[in-house]
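Reopening: C-alpha cells for the aspartic acid complex, inputs below.
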Amino acid sequence: MNDRRTFFQKLILGAGGLYSLNLLETLSLMKTESIKNPSRKLIATWNNPKAIQAAWEVLEKNGNALDAVEAGARIPEADPKDTSVGYGGLPDRDGDVTLDACIMDHLGRSGGVMFVKNIMHPISVARLVMEKTPHVYLVGEGAEIFAEAQGFKKENLLTPEAKKAWKDWLVRSEYKPKINSERHDTIGILAMDGEGKLSGACTTSGLAFKMKGRVGDSPIIGSGLFVDNEVGCATGTGLGEAVIRKVGAFSIVEMIRNGMHPQKACEKAIKRLIDIKEYGEFQVGYIALDKKGRLGGYGLRPGFQYITADEGKVVLHNADSFYK
Ligand code: ASP
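Re-run output (same inputs, fresh job):
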C-alpha cells in the first residue's frame, strides 16, 4: 500500500473539532494504527492535510524534523489555490506577490527571507540562508539574487485569480492596505522527529494588499516562529503587526519553559493581544508543541483551525477562541 493511502487510513476526525476534510471525505475511515515511534508529532496551522501528509511522509521514513517542516511548508507554497502563501498568494497593493518565510532547527539555528518576489519556495531559500550563509536573514533583492545563485528559478507567482482579486480590491478599497479579521492561510508547521528533535517553519505571502515592503510576523524569529529544542516550539498566523508587538512565539515557548502546558501557553499569549485596539477586529491563531510531545492551539476569534499528526492519527481541530 502506498504511503499516501496508509496515511489517510490512519485519519480520524477530532471530537472537539469535527470538520469535514473535503479531500478525504470519500476515504473510508479505518481503525487507528499506532505509529512505530510515538514521539513523532506534527502540528500545522489551518486545514492543510496535504502539507501535514508531506511532512509525515518524511518523519515516517525516519527523516528529521527539519526536512519534515520544509516539505510541509512547500505544499501550500506551490498551491495556486492558497491565497496567503507562495504561488497564488494575494499581492500587495501594487500588484506584486511578495513572500516572507523562516525556519528554525533543533540546534537553534535559524534562517529567513522577507519581501522576496518571483521565487516559489521561500522556505527552502530560508533554509539555505541558515545553512549556507553566515547570516540569519536576506531580504528583497539580496534574497532573490541568493536564491537564483542557489538554482531557484524566477517565476511569475501572480495567478489570474489573484490578479483579478487585486483589481477588484483597487476599485473598492481606495488603495489602502486591508487589515482582515477573516481567514489567513499562512502555514506555520512544527515537528518532533523520531529522535525527539524539534524544528519549525513558517511561510506566507503576508496580508493581502499590504503596503509595498510590509513584513509581518511570519519570517521573524521569536514572533512568527520559535524553537528551543530543550523546551518546545510555537508558531502562528493572523495579523502580524499584533503578533510582533507581543513577540508571540517566543513568549509561548518561555511559558512552556516555566512549566505551562502548550495549550495554556497559547491561550495566555492570545489573551495578551486583547489590549491592542487600533486594528479593529483582527484574528490571530497560535499553535505549540513541547518537548514531551504535548500540543496546543488557540485563536483570538472563532474560525482558527489547526491540524495535527499524532501517534498515527491526523486530526483537524476547530480551535477554541478567546472571543466566542
Ligand atoms: N501572519 C501573516 C502576516 O502578518 C498573515 C497571515 O497569517 O495570513 O504577514
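Residues 84, 184, 186, 204, 206-207, 216-218, 237-240 surround aspartic acid (CB under 6 Å). The chain has two domains: 1-34, 35-318. Marking as resolved unless the reporter disagrees.
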